[in-house]
Amino acid sequence: MSVLICGSLAFDTITNFHGRFAQQILPEQVHSLSVSFLVPTLRREYGGCAGNIAYTLRHLGGTPLVKAALGNDGHDYLARLRGWQLDTSLVHVAADAYTAQAIIITDSDNNQITAFHPGAMQQAHATAIPGDKGIELAIISPDGREAMLAHAQQLHALRIPFVFDPGQQLPMFDGGELRRFVEQASWLALNDYEAAMLCERMGTTPEALSRSHLHGVVVTLGAQGCDVWQQGRRQHVAGVAAQTVVDPTGCGDALRAALLHGLALGWPLERCAALGNRVGALKIAHRGGQNHPVDATALTTGL
Questions:
Q1: Which of 157, 154, 160, 167 is nearest to 48 (CA)?
Q2: What fold does the segment set 2-21+42-296 form as a domain?
Q3: What is the DSSP secondary structure assignment for residue 227, as one 8-state letter?
Q4: d(CA 118, CA 248)
Q5: Residue 290 near residue 52, CB atoms below 8 Å
Q6: 143 is catalytic
Q7: What is the mean pLDDT of the chain?
Q8: Are 67 and 151 within 8 A, CB to CB?
Q9: How do the domains of the chain map onto residue ranges?
Q10: Which position among 107, 143, 247, 253 bears the catalytic label?
Q11: Mind listing the pLDDT tens digit for each residue in 1-26?
Q12: What is the rounded distance in angstroms from the CA atom of residue 84 to the CA atom of residue 62?
């Protein structure tokens, strides 16, 4: 089964601040904020939600098909995707833009401040989702605004079930737009902050959403695991303790890859979430969103 992943491909410049943001930012002075963080470590990683999800899904044994945009500096990234034996025919290469880039600062409490340049991502809507690729499942993850709107409509028209995962792009959409996304989607995946924002803008609750046509709503809770809402009932799926905490970048993407893998196999949503918690705990022990080893057999044993 081909799983379509609509989202961003980006380069992540990741730095670490050996202190706490809370000790450097004075709440009473935020109206004239001027701060500088010394970041003694810096590295550049392949990232973006679509790339991160595709990495984990492919190594779990899935068949991801990436629908995204790269810039004129993205040829190495394209070669990387092909190195995973992926079909890259739906990756648009924009000759007049740079690849999207995230500049991330992580403090000692694993809080993050990110600056994001969208670049070629703003052209991700340039091509439509084809109906002849054998796609049976999809996800709409953070991407260009126009691309997210267009891809949801196209998937709905093609009757392809998809997970709606707005992530950090959620604030771009008003209540009416979010309502339309939800009407077209089959599942929702959000962290607890995003879930609160979506529900506030739509005037609803996770319980009410799960009583609609949706097959399920997954609300992630970091190290505490996640809540799975179905037909008005909440089931908590406990988190998995990480062996070590190195870098939270891409943990949510790793979990979503596991959700897609389980859904493609016909698993119950709770089992998909349990696999997601395992993969997230594995990812956080490694730097970047595409460097964690994935042993599919070990990860699925006992689920």
A1: 167
A2: UDP-N-acetylmuramoyl-L-alanine:D-glutamate ligase (3.40.1190)
A3: E
A4: 21
A5: yes
A6: no
A7: 95
A8: yes
A9: 2-21+42-296
A10: 253
A11: 799 999 999 998 989 999 999 888 88
A12: 11
